[in-house]
Amino acid sequence: MIITKVLGLTSAFTKSKKAKIAILGLEMAVLGYALYQQKQEKKNKRLKSK
Questions:
Q1: Following CA atoms 28, 34, 40, 44 in sequence, which dihedral angle do they give, to the nearest 10 degrees?
Q2: 50 by DSSP, 3-state: which?
Q3: Residue 37: closest CA among 45, 26, 47, 25
């Protein structure tokens, strides 16, 4: 994932744990949103197929 690459670059440029934690939190939020959208799409497909 792109965020993981960004995290690698961030750790190369900074020693700040706060920045690393913020990026990980952002990555988790993006993943959660993607899973939610995927679940909604599957639900909509099932409703349309009936």
A1: -170
A2: coil
A3: 45
Give the pLDDT score at 19.
77
- List, in order, residues 6 or more apart from 20 with CB less than 8 Å away: 7, 10, 11, 14
Q: Give which of 1, 10, 6 is closest to 31, Cα–Cα.
A: 1
**Distance of CA 30 to CAs 23, 24, 25, 36, Å?**
11, 10, 9, 10
- Its pTM surpasses 0.85: no
The C-alpha atoms of residue 14 and residue 37 are separated, in whole angstroms, by 33
Q: Could you give the CA distance from residue 17 to residue 19 in angstroms, rounded to a whole number? A: 5
